[in-house]
């Protein structure tokens, strides 16, 4: 992507800053009988990490721990005395005569210690640049043989190079556990680790537990990644690895570049597991993802043999061939009872049972599943069939389809995951199989722009950079425009008035396509058969001939497949006409807001339209020779060609309307646009910028997703506007409910829908500086793994805050800013 070089250099620069003060002299290790007391620290060689004493949050207690030296916030990665704080500054870490690390309080009481199995002659303690505090014997040449390491005893953070899981030889289980709260690093209820049952040949799985209860489950490792967790795919800057052999079973990751810092955190306060990336430039952690991300991530929400489908109402379904155990409870949205078979298995005659294939599911909990890596799928099926209590099977390795996983008992914690390709075969009596050879199949992801290789982080940089650059960018764009306004001859085909009159059959009523903001639009056909749309500017529009020409010139220079093409114009006497290419499918509003037409626009088409409009707008804002603020983006200004490709129309026209000299300051006394789409700062203060277009775009996205007009929508009881409704749903984790009811029945990529809603909400944020630029929007729409910032409160939250609700077609052309808006 084109931003790469520029932003890469930024990353490198940021890294340089990060390590800049690493040259301070500091020790990275202590030898025998040396110590670190409160007030002194160890600093790793490159200066990345520091070990010392600290007080967390508002606490006065002292803890010994490790933190990122150059990160000022949420930087503690490991704590020694998690539950044994020291109440003064007398803490001291040293090695005692047996070579153990001991943390002493007032020189005598041992607050924390290591338990080595053997005597160490010459203990040396070193803080590594990975964040690992290691203890080894200097007499022992083998540099990697640590007698003890902090990485074996994680706190709430999982760092690159750590192993989450088991050292089977030592019987060591490494689990991450959340802090109780911000002031207390003692382990809280949340912990995260790898669980399996070696004796029963179960397959290792990752669980987050809340107290004793399973809370989150990633799905078993399928040879490539964790089943059902798209975020844990390898990505541009993190490599994940899973190791499963006789000695060790663990999960680890490393960073592909030194300039990126990425960590996992388990946070009790928010009850989430998060992946954060440090952005040095912004001095903040960027949330890359956080789970549970929706209802369906709640462990076992739908009970045994239930399937959780996010976006459906209710979210829980029974697997095919099953029915709710208690329909009454199920109807009351208590799904914990799960589902039972419609027809019992016929175990007497084994031949009569078979299997139904399901694709697109997160594999069920494997606690009671058996694994045999040496069987193939055919053997697996035979084996499962031969044992009446075997409920389902699947191959354990998607890479080559090898291995056999067999489930016994109810199938727990299944959810629909559109990206999951692995098949699950569920045992069914012959009678169920006869009904239909149904297969649950998920929709494949369609990316917005060609390259899916957009780096998460890079996307983020683009986003942040742009949000900063906003005001500057806007100013530049306005200056550019003003300078371009010098006299030049029009290079646009001029049409004769008689030609147009003939083409439109004398502007006949039957050829009238509609009423645009500035006058009627007619369909016409030129002599060669080319179809055109003619916009006739009404005489009262007050637009001067020169400005009209300049504006036409500006438009004719714009070439983009998502902008409607201006073919020419006609200026004769009082008549001012613009001739455009004709769009067979008319405008977007005629589809999305119409009960019958709405069905014709399925989700993939709608997504294509959203992406197309985004690209068109990006072109206007950034890529075209002239920078243009559209100021009147709305559904009726998005035209659709034969293939439903969106074309923005009416562009730029609004800008010169009325010829207001104040434009260069990004402020106008004439507020022109359409209520429901105009950004609050524009409506109330006449301030416009590319960010007011972004606002309109956000409204458009929410309309396309919901099929509801922003101008006529508000929830009766709460008085919420469309933006507020969408935002509230998102906060409650029910954003998918915004989706147009016409689209509910068909299968589509729900993550894509959610992403669009999320992006839409980012665009309609109240504060202009919070809104992303269109280049970020295009990146965000295209990347299915990019984690988006959480949107702040949108503009027009309550009905009472928004201007009086006008029907969408009534464009308001002039408002003086001195008084309150909207009469
Ligand atoms: C700190 O704790 C010790 C016991 O560990 C106790 O004797 C001492 O009084 C405490 N000091 C303060 C200031 O609370
Ligand atoms: C060193 O510390 C360990 C752990 O506290 C303890 O078991 C051991 O007895 C200590 N050795 C001596 C000589 O104090
Ligand atoms: C700890 O011991 C050192 C030297 O052994 C001594 O200087 C210091 O005063 C002692 N501190 C306390 C709190 O007893
Ligand atoms: C947990 O997350 C909250 C909200 O992001 C944050 O304020 C808090 O500091 C986090 N807690 C810890 C222990 O990091
Ligand atoms: C093995 O699994 C069975 C149930 O399938 C369970 O009853 C048994 O306790 C498990 N064995 C071990 C050692 O956990
Ligand atoms: C549950 O809801 C379904 C559909 O609404 C209805 O047909 C059924 O009678 C209800 N069952 C019970 C037990 O309420
Ligand atoms: C749901 O039903 C189960 C019994 O099947 C019961 O234990 C549980 O309390 C119910 N949950 C709620 C929220 O009512
Ligand atoms: C795994 O399957 C192979 C081939 O069917 C069989 O020989 C072997 O005994 C099985 N292993 C276990 C532990 O069941
Ligand atoms: C079926 O599998 C279960 C669980 O592995 C086992 O306990 C049982 O003995 C098996 N039954 C037969 C008939 O093989």
Automatic annotation (TrEMBL):
<dbReference type="InterPro" id="IPR000742">
    <property type="entry name" value="EGF"/>
</dbReference>
<comment type="similarity">
    <text>Belongs to the protein kinase superfamily. Ser/Thr protein kinase family.</text>
</comment>
<feature type="signal peptide">
    <location>
        <begin position="1"/>
        <end position="26"/>
    </location>
</feature>
<dbReference type="Pfam" id="PF00954">
    <property type="entry name" value="S_locus_glycop"/>
</dbReference>
<keyword id="KW-0418">Kinase</keyword>
<dbReference type="Pfam" id="PF07714">
    <property type="entry name" value="PK_Tyr_Ser-Thr"/>
</dbReference>
<dbReference type="InterPro" id="IPR036426">
    <property type="entry name" value="Bulb-type_lectin_dom_sf"/>
</dbReference>
<feature type="domain" description="EGF-like">
    <location>
        <begin position="292"/>
        <end position="328"/>
    </location>
</feature>
<keyword id="KW-1015">Disulfide bond</keyword>
<keyword id="KW-0472">Membrane</keyword>
<dbReference type="InterPro" id="IPR003609">
    <property type="entry name" value="Pan_app"/>
</dbReference>
<keyword id="KW-0547">Nucleotide-binding</keyword>
<dbReference type="InterPro" id="IPR000858">
    <property type="entry name" value="S_locus_glycoprot_dom"/>
</dbReference>
<dbReference type="InterPro" id="IPR001245">
    <property type="entry name" value="Ser-Thr/Tyr_kinase_cat_dom"/>
</dbReference>
<dbReference type="InterPro" id="IPR011009">
    <property type="entry name" value="Kinase-like_dom_sf"/>
</dbReference>
<keyword id="KW-0067">ATP-binding</keyword>
<dbReference type="Pfam" id="PF01453">
    <property type="entry name" value="B_lectin"/>
</dbReference>
<dbReference type="InterPro" id="IPR000719">
    <property type="entry name" value="Prot_kinase_dom"/>
</dbReference>
<feature type="domain" description="Apple">
    <location>
        <begin position="347"/>
        <end position="430"/>
    </location>
</feature>
<feature type="domain" description="Bulb-type lectin">
    <location>
        <begin position="27"/>
        <end position="148"/>
    </location>
</feature>
<dbReference type="GO" id="GO:0005524">
    <property type="term" value="F:ATP binding"/>
</dbReference>
<keyword id="KW-0325">Glycoprotein</keyword>
<keyword id="KW-1133">Transmembrane helix</keyword>
<keyword id="KW-0732">Signal</keyword>
<dbReference type="GO" id="GO:0004674">
    <property type="term" value="F:protein serine/threonine kinase activity"/>
</dbReference>
<feature type="transmembrane region" description="Helical">
    <location>
        <begin position="439"/>
        <end position="463"/>
    </location>
</feature>
<keyword id="KW-0245">EGF-like domain</keyword>
<dbReference type="InterPro" id="IPR001480">
    <property type="entry name" value="Bulb-type_lectin_dom"/>
</dbReference>
<dbReference type="InterPro" id="IPR008271">
    <property type="entry name" value="Ser/Thr_kinase_AS"/>
</dbReference>
<dbReference type="InterPro" id="IPR024171">
    <property type="entry name" value="SRK-like_kinase"/>
</dbReference>
<keyword id="KW-0723">Serine/threonine-protein kinase</keyword>
<keyword id="KW-0808">Transferase</keyword>
<keyword id="KW-0812">Transmembrane</keyword>
<dbReference type="GO" id="GO:0048544">
    <property type="term" value="P:recognition of pollen"/>
</dbReference>
<feature type="domain" description="Protein kinase">
    <location>
        <begin position="507"/>
        <end position="789"/>
    </location>
</feature>
<dbReference type="Pfam" id="PF08276">
    <property type="entry name" value="PAN_2"/>
</dbReference>
<protein>
    <recommendedName>
        <fullName>Receptor-like serine/threonine-protein kinase</fullName>
        <ecNumber>2.7.11.1</ecNumber>
    </recommendedName>
</protein>
């Amino acid at each position: 992507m084109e931003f790469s070089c520029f932003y890469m250099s930024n990353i490198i620069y940021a890294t340089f800053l990060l390590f800049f003060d690493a040259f301070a002299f500091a020790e990275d290790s202590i030898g025998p009988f040396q110590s670190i007391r409160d007030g002194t620290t160890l600093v790793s060689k490159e200066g990345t990490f520091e070990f010392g004493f600290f007080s967390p949050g508002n606490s006065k207690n002292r803890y010994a721990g490790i933190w990122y030296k150059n990160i000022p916030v949420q930087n503690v990665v490991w704590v020694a005395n998690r539950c044994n704080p020291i109440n003064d500054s007398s803490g001291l870490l040293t090695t005692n005569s047996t070579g153990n690390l001991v943390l002493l309080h007032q020189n005598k009481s041992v607050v924390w210690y290591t338990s080595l199995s053997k005597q160490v002659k010459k203990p040396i303690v070193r803080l590594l640049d990975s964040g690992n505090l290691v203890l080894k014997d200097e007499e022992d040449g083998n540099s990697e043989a640590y007698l003890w390491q902090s990485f074996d005893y994680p706190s709430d953070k999982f760092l690159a190079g750590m192993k989450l899981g088991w050292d089977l030889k030592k019987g060591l289980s490494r689990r991450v556990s959340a802090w109780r709260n911000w002031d207390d690093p003692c382990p809280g209820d949340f912990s995260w680790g790898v669980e399996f049952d070696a004796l029963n040949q179960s397959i290792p799985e990752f669980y987050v537990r809340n107290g004793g209860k399973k809370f989150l489950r990633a799905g078993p490792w399928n040879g490539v990644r964790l089943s059902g967790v798209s975020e844990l795919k390898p990505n541009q800057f993190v490599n994940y690895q899973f190791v499963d052999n006789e000695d060790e079973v663990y999960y680890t990751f490393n960073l592909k570049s030194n300039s990126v810092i990425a960590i996992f955190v388990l946070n009790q306060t928010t009850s989430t597991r998060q992946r954060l990336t440090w952005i040095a430039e912004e001095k903040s952690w960027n949330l890359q993802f956080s789970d549970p991300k929706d209802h369906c991530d709640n462990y076992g929400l739908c009970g045994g043999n239930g399937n959780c489908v996010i976006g459906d109402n209710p979210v829980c379904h029974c697997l095919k061939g099953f029915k709710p155990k208690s329909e009454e409870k199920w109807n009351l949205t208590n799904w914990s009872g799960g589902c039972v078979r419609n027809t019992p298995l016929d175990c007497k005659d084994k031949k009569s049972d078979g299997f139904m294939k399901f694709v697109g599911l997160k594999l069920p909990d494997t606690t009671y599943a058996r694994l045999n890596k040496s069987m193939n799928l055919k053997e697996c099926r035979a084996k499962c069939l031969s044992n009446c209590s075997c409920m389902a099977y699947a191959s354990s390795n998607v890479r080559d389809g090898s291995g056999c996983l067999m489930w016994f008992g109810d199938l727990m914690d299944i959810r629909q995951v559109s990206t999951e390709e692995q098949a699950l075969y569920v045992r069914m009596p012959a009678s169920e199989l006869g009904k239909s050879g149904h297969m649950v199949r998920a929709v494949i992801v369609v990316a917005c722009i060609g390259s899916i290789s957009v780096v998460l982080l890079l996307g983020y940089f683009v986003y942040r950079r742009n949000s900063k650059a906003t005001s500057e960018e806007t100013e530049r764009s306005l200056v550019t425009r003003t300078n371009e306004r010098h006299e030049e001859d029009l290079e646009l085909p001029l049409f004769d008035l008689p030609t147009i009159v003939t083409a439109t059959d004398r502007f006949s009523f039957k050829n009238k396509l509609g009423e645009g903001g500035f006058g009627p639009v007619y369909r016409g056909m030129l002599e060669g058969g080319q179809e055109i749309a003619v916009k006739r500017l009404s005489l009262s529009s007050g637009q001067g001939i020169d400005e009209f020409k300049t504006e036409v010139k500006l438009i004719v220079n714009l070439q983009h497949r998502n902008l409607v093409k201006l073919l020419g114009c006609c200026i004769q006497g009082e008549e001012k006409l613009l001739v455009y290419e004709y769009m067979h499918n008319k405008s977007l509003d005629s589809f999305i807001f119409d009960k019958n037409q709405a069905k014709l626009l399925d989700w993939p088409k709608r997504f294509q339209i959203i992406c197309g409009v985004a690209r068109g707008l990006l072109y206007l804002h950034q890529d075209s020779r002239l920078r243009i603020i559209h100021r009147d983006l709305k559904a009726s200004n998005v035209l659709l060609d034969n293939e439903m490709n969106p074309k923005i129309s009416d562009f730029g026209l609004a800008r010169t309307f009325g010829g207001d000299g104040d434009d260069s300051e990004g402020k106008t006394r004439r507020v022109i646009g359409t209520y429901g789409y105009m950004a609050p700062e524009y409506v109330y203060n006449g301030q416009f910028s590319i960010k007011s277009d972004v606002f309109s775009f956000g409204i458009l996205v929410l309309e396309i997703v919901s099929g509801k007009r922003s101008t006529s929508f508000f929830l009766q009881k709460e008085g919420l506007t469309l933006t507020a409704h969408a935002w509230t749903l998102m906060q409650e984790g029910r954003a998918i409910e915004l989706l147009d009811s016409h689209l509910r029945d068909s299968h589509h990529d729900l993550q894509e829908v959610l992403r669009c809603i999320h992006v839409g909400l980012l665009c309609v944020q109240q504060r202009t500086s919070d809104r992303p630029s269109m280049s970020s929007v295009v990146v965000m729409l295209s990347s299915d793994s990019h984690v988006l910032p959480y949107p702040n409160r949108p503009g027009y939250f309550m009905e009472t805050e928004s201007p009086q609700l006008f029907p969408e077609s009534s464009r308001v052309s002039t408002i003086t800013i001195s008084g309150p808006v909207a009469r």
